[in-house]
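Possible regression after last week's pipeline update?

I re-ran a chain I had predicted before the update to compare outputs. Posting the input and the new output here so someone can diff against the archived version. Not blocking, just want to make sure nothing changed silently.
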Amino acid sequence: MTDPSMPLEFAALGGYLLGSVPFGLVLTRLAGLGDIRAIGSGNIGATNVLRTGRKDLALATLLLDSGKGAFAALGAMALAGWSGVDPTVPVVAGVAAVVGHNYPLWLRFKGGKGVATTLGVLLATAWPVGIAACLTWLLMAVVFRYSSLAALTALTVAPGFAFAMAGWPHVAGFAGLAALAWWRHRDNVRRLRDGTESRIGQTSGGEPATAVQARDAA
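New output (post-update):
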């Protein structure tokens, strides 16, 4: 039988291990493109995978990175029996999956920035909040054309959406994810402030990898 009082430690460990799977690195290596960490921003997310020219791999990375966040949360709920589950359980599992993506055990704790995984967690644990965050990202991306700004805005307002449409475990968890996103995007924030952040669709103009370090917002 499933146990609705699943220990949070178990949910966190399972979420972290699932989130640690570096799909971007795995897919590019299977495709014979080498180590994704050696090009562009050096990140393992979908934005950097796109720099290989393989849109299909970038889309697959985006879906898998989002999916592992959602699966971590939904898997914890399923193991705990769905009905009567403390909402803290899936939130903890989802947050741990984002931490795993950002600091994967298998890559010496050097991972991505967790935006796609975070959106997967939002959609799985409080889908109205997830949709609102995705729409916020889309609006900001269309208006300002900065992926990092769009991501940070969407994740920053997510706790407010959760306050209106979900519960306190979601508010606390999403606030933690927003804080983590700001920390992981600190270089992007500095470039936004200095006016040197690249826009969506803007090429690097032949700059070396070091010149575009950390521009990946995924």
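Follow-up from reviewer: compared with the archived run. Residues 8-200 form one domain. Marking as no regression found.
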